[in-house]
Amino acid sequence: MWRSETYKLCFRPKHQPEFIDIDMPSSGFSALAGVPMLNVFERPLTGWGNVLKAIEDKALGAALLAAALPLCLLIALVIKLGSPGPALFRQTRYGFNNNEFTVFKFRTMHADAEADASVPQATRGDARVTCVGAFLRRTSLDELPQLYNVLRGDMSLVGPRPHAVPHNQQYAALIGDYLSRHRVKPGITGWAQVNGLRGEIASPEIMKLRVQHDIHYIEHWSLLLDIKILLLTVLVGFVNKNAY
Description:
Blueprint: E1 7-10, E2 29-32, E3 35-41, H1 48-82, E4 88-94, E5 100-106, H2 131-139, H3 146-152, E6 156-158, H4 165-174, E7 187-189, H5 191-194, H6 204-219, H7 223-237
Parallel strand pairs: 6-7
Antiparallel strand pairs: 1-3, 2-3, 4-5
């Protein structure tokens, strides 16, 4: 299980510490009792950063959910009229510190599409997707119920996108830095998504690129970066050629 702590690798040279030939991230150097230390991992949100992030999620999340509530009720009604089954889709995913939580989305597939435990990714022209669902997926309106996840504390407005449990386990075994994404809460939108990295993951290389963007976000987090991502989501993030 991931622990949000700072891990340091201790060196005892006479002068400056030197890197050793091990493939691992570095967050600079520090000293402990006069001993040079190589910072391997650091908690991404500390002090006021953590407070600002929480205020952003709760205040802005509540405002957005209140504004979107009439639209959410209309979407739920259209889904119910369009095909049999519940309006909401629930799925277990991994969040902060690799803890499981239930994510909420509007249902975009036929109700029996959940029977496959391997959770196959949606592909272009996927027969499982309903007519209403295709529109919701293209416009990302199916993600609106995740504002409730934000208010519950499961997710943030901005952060690495959470993946289905089978996909999480698959890519964690293939990509060394994959689990680093769980150092922060998952988000409704993220740095990878506003840079066009969304939709079907056709190869491990695409997921590696997503992970690189997620880690960049985690290591460079700021309130201004979150605002930039939210604005880009409004401008370019909702509609994307890879959203289907």
